[in-house]
Amino acid sequence: MKPVFLYDTTLRDGTQGEGFQLSMLDKLRIAERLDRFGIDYIEGGWPGSNPKDIEFFREASKLDLKHAKLAAFGSTRRADLAVEEDPQVRLLLEASTPVVTIFGKSWELHVTEVLRTTVEENQAMIRDTVRYLKENDREVVYDAEHFFDGYKDSPEHALATLEAAAEGGADVLVLCDTNGGTLPEEVLEICTKVKERIPGTPFGIHTHNDCELGVANAVAAVRAGGIQVQGTVNGYGERTGNCNLTSVIPILQLKMGLEVIPALEGLQALSYFVDDVSNNPHFARAPFVGRTAFAHKGGMHVNAVQKLARSYEHIEPQRVGNSQQILVSELSGQSNILIKAEELGLKLEKGSDEAKSVLTRVKEMENAGYSFEAAGGSLELLIRRELGSYEKPFDLKEFHTSYRLYRDGHQPVCEATVKLYVGDVGEYTVAEGHGVVNALDKALRKALLPFYPEIEEVSLTDYKVRIIDGHDNTAAKTRVLVVSSDGEHSWGTVGVSENIIEASWIAIVDSIDLFLQRRGVLATKSADTPSAARA
Amino acid sequence: MKPVFLYDTTLRDGTQGEGFQLSMLDKLRIAERLDRFGIDYIEGGWPGSNPKDIEFFREASKLDLKHAKLAAFGSTRRADLAVEEDPQVRLLLEASTPVVTIFGKSWELHVTEVLRTTVEENQAMIRDTVRYLKENDREVVYDAEHFFDGYKDSPEHALATLEAAAEGGADVLVLCDTNGGTLPEEVLEICTKVKERIPGTPFGIHTHNDCELGVANAVAAVRAGGIQVQGTVNGYGERTGNCNLTSVIPILQLKMGLEVIPALEGLQALSYFVDDVSNNPHFARAPFVGRTAFAHKGGMHVNAVQKLARSYEHIEPQRVGNSQQILVSELSGQSNILIKAEELGLKLEKGSDEAKSVLTRVKEMENAGYSFEAAGGSLELLIRRELGSYEKPFDLKEFHTSYRLYRDGHQPVCEATVKLYVGDVGEYTVAEGHGVVNALDKALRKALLPFYPEIEEVSLTDYKVRIIDGHDNTAAKTRVLVVSSDGEHSWGTVGVSENIIEASWIAIVDSIDLFLQRRGVLATKSADTPSAARA
């Protein structure tokens, strides 16, 4: 048996977070992915709260889950209503999941002020509902809402509600720090008390991050003997979010030696997957899985990491699917630049004039708003230019974009023209697109294709816009980051301008330019015989 | 005397984080702000690592700090060099700060593999440097780098380095979890051991967030008797960042009863200030200070919070300068919409057809990519339209934007034209701008100004672009969020389109439209006498 079971509530509690919305299809995809990763329980939703969740459970029953058990979430029966008459409880059974999770009230304040019933009736609601679900052959998880606040208010009241759930036959009693205000030492102490008082039923933990202690509180509960940890991928959830499974899983496995996931190296991919599906930006500073979680910027750290990786890394990044990054930035000593150049396979000598001028240029451009941390492609071009291993693929003469919107007519028209020279041969092209940047990208490719047919292999895979100075209204500076791929490799390029169109242009040109430099196709071109290039 | 001193290293360790860059002026502004907020120590930089920091200390000595002491950061003397000969140590004294913080090596691995010296020489380096700084009348903070890793490797070695610092006369021994891999229980245990072994010198704590335990580890150290907490505002810093002072401060003060800051209600403003100065986006889910830290989305929670705020809030948001938010979204029951309408001073009856149709419309628009959580202005317009308390200020006929870039000529030309009607009167205007959206904003205002001179009071104060679906390259959907102000109130509006220009247009039009609805100036206009409006 596993020492600790993982219970994911991304699909339910996660969707209570601002900006975290999932369609039914999204939920199905995430459920499947959680199962493959090795999560033990997947809470799919609350059938009693919205029709989308009822539909989800209908569809989810067709999923081919290999390991995880699906759980439907709901509440205890209403006050003064027989449990078998309660429509919300009926919906829980109709979800046809092997597991049902119900929450009940632990805090006297909530019983009297929110539910507006008596302490005795509240206990009966818990006991009856758990028993009824057990009679219907469900594994029952009892979520003791506000348990820690309730305990601090009245230990006897809170413990009596747990006893009611245990009497009903609950399989596990999950202690919830619903408001996220409890400290780890309190969690440890209170969990220990619960274990002493109710030794016959195991307990689990459900925490929130309101004090930035969601993970620490879950760890404290496991130390006290907890056997189930509830949380969400990337910590999404109401207010400040839930316990971040993406952090607590590697702590349990790598720091505490508890085997909870068979292949932990899938962790970063899972984190990105949930961000992508929910259309949320990746949080670069996220522990374990963040883009910068193993990124070294200070010149001294970079030096030391080169000598000995574990000198500034608490685990091997590969164990959670991450990797070491050397950031090139303002604080860069030459060693960051040299390492980056080496990664790129470019020869840059320590202390050389080229290395110094690359560094100077990087700092100048960063002052102007550039950021090379996620734009290795633009940095590579910059180094190539300094090393002289660069050949200009074309000269831009001008470009023009136009966008016309008619209120009572057809679709908006987005059009771009590009005028450029490759050697002495001029090209003047026009294209339409979904937007002006898309049109511009198309017109540029159209102009270059006769000379460089290889660019057909290149496609844009990501396009991000960031306003880097919001103080000057719409005239603020814009940074555009483009990720391109040729099917095998991908690379990031960056452009900065007061104008989003020009910033996009710079990033797109860099993207194609770098591809051509790497392919080394430029030297073979004769400027005045574009047809030869096609041969 | 304060029970715990706060030591901020945003200006030094913070700037090791990706995307966290500060100019010298930025650093001065932040230092002043930290002082006013009540931080005890401000670490300004490492004069030995870059010339910007030397300049900073020169300028910082002119700041009128009311409370905080400035600290210069550096390392112990080099191996095999007399301390008074060490140029890096000399720069520390030349910074002329009342406090100097030096770090030394606690982990044998680092002594032998990174420094490549002996254990004895390492201890001498620590002892000599501390003593020399004390002889020069500095308050000396000794940062024991990698202390916990070093202790776990060899307690005797790690403790001997602390003893060397204590012998040199250090004022405080700061135990650093440099790699962020230590668990709170280990911190508690090891800090307790340090206190037993070296009772004569107090200790402090410096943690990193690599396991999402930076705050928990600092709290554990304070429990063990630590008297100084080091960290950064918003947790900025290398890799996953430093201990987040913005979380640990309210925990110390509100949860542990330690008076560390005189006016804690300035906390959220400090957090936003540092984000703004460093040009970083606000992290909405940040504990205590985040935009959603006290935001309620689930219908049930919204209900309960209305009955009793503390039912889902662990502290009063006002105590840290934050406030309660009711989010309108997909999960909204009618009660969220009703509360929001009430906040806006609009009468919307529970269960009414209007309330239902507002909810339906919100859900439709959210499916299309809209988000009203930060765009209360657009939501207000939507409610007004459903209630019939809305009058259309103008009819758009068409608009056009054009952007032309010349490589070998003058500045790019951004131009927009707008054709619209107010009643029967047509206007056709053209304007140039810094970018096409800026030009469009100007052309629109130019067209409306004769009819609605009030709009001169409205200005755009923020403009944000978010790509909400990166799967379709440059044709992805774009959400534009605009914040406007009339000098007294500010409001957010939102536009979504495949095209950034159209999305911007929608958000800008909503912004002006809402202003006009609120002012109630529409009904007074006679469509064919614009001059009357000016009277």
Automatic annotation (TrEMBL), chains A, B:
It comes from the Bacteria. Its EC number is 2.3.3.21. Gene3D superfamilies: 1.10.238.260, 3.30.160.270, Aldolase class I (3.20.20.70). Keywords: Amino-acid biosynthesis, Branched-chain amino acid biosynthesis, Isoleucine biosynthesis, Transferase. PROSITE patterns: AIPM_HOMOCIT_SYNTH_1, PYR_CT. It catalyses: pyruvate + acetyl-CoA + H2O = (3R)-citramalate + CoA + H(+). Pathway: Amino-acid biosynthesis; L-isoleucine biosynthesis; 2-oxobutanoate from pyruvate: step 1/3. Residues 4-268 form the Pyruvate carboxyltransferase domain. It is an enzyme of class 2 (transferase). Belongs to the alpha-IPM synthase/homocitrate synthase family. This is Citramalate synthase. It comes from Haloferula helveola.
